[in-house]
Amino acid sequence: MQAWSLWGGNGEPFSSEGKWKVVAEDKHSLSTEIHLVDFVILCLGRFSDVPNIPDFHPNKGPEAFHGEVIHSMNYADMDYVSAANLVKGKQVTVVGFQKFAMDIAMECSNANGVELPCTVIYKTEHWNLPDYLPWGLPLAYLYFSRFSELLVHKPGEGLLLSLLATILSPLRWAFSKFVESHVNKKLGLAKYGMVPKHGFLQEISSCMIATVPEKFFDRVQEGSIILKKSPSSTFSFCQEGILVEGESSPVKTDLVIMATGFRGEKKLKDVFVSPTFQDRIVGSPETILPLYRECIHGRIPQLAVIGFSESISNLFTSEMRCRWLSELFAGTFKLPSIKEMEKDVEKWDKYAKQYASGQYYRRSCIGALHLWYNDQLCKDMGWNPKRKKGVFAELFEPYGPMDYVTS
What we know:
Elements: E1 20-25, E2 32-37, E3 40-42, E4 68-71, H1 72-77, H2 80-87, E5 92-95, H3 99-112, E6 118-122, H4 139-143, H5 146-149, H6 159-167, H7 169-187, H8 200-205, H9 216-222, E7 225-229, E8 235-237, E9 241-244, E10 251-252, E11 255-258, H10 264-269, H11 275-282, E12 303-305, H12 314-329, H13 338-355, H14 370-381, H15 391-396
Parallel strand pairs: 3-12, 4-11, 5-6, 5-11, 6-7
Antiparallel strand pairs: 1-2, 8-9, 9-10
Helix pairs in contact: 12-14
């Protein structure tokens, strides 16, 4: 493999050089099946199975707490009645401030009201959206059109596109401020000290946008939800509840729900038995996941990953990748050399670090470059990347799944 210049030795999806051994275990019967296959497609996703639990100093973790600690994954696995019974009549603390955290806080608020308010401990404020119509204009016109993508620097862009992105940077800033002003006005973020320090473009480029549940901040105002910022990610448990750094008294609680996300990279890594493949699939912690077209690893043959890299519409993006992969199987195109694939990954890594938030570039988000990314897939498959009728429509109308129904 080290000597190959082409993927799998020949640049094609299938090779006579080897097969994958897939071991599947039935966890109920504990029976095991072994399959030899020519190609493996990992459709794992990153938001399940392996919870992200913060590390704690000895005797400062959940073991020091007298109550119950669960992850949001466990809460989501419950049926509605069981989940309602779990939080009813309890002082609940939710750790996190993304979609899971806000939804769970709302359910706790519904169950217990102001008598037993739910405390939400968060580290970073986010531009979570009340709707997708900033000041009545569909968000797609601002971020999912060819014109909107002219405002950002793109991986592999030429000199002209680079100059345009630089010249139009004030408009890029104006788009962000337009959305931010709507969110701030509608949710009253300033009133609660919840205005993020970063811009909306960084948020969408990191795929960190969530939809705020209806009347969430009304519950904050009435007191059934309490927002408490932890100055850093450091907090610890004590017998009565959670100790936030810089505060002398703990947040007293009966139940802690950790809405702290998932360790998708660990799940992906642990699929492999080989330490070599384990290291290669996740790459360096200082770069994005090293996948060409967000699907293929240049140094791991006869394998594809679907649905791990994020976008604003993951189903749409995964469908495009599936079509790209099917055309690769059909022989419509061949992959470039391994070096070329790795150079392309480096360009996307540079883009991610330029626009995504520091701790989130590893999410390999294409949130602000849907069209640029889909254009590359289309060109590989021999499709015309321009899908609209007319110059004005092509430049200013948003693109969506229906634009790619036919080849």
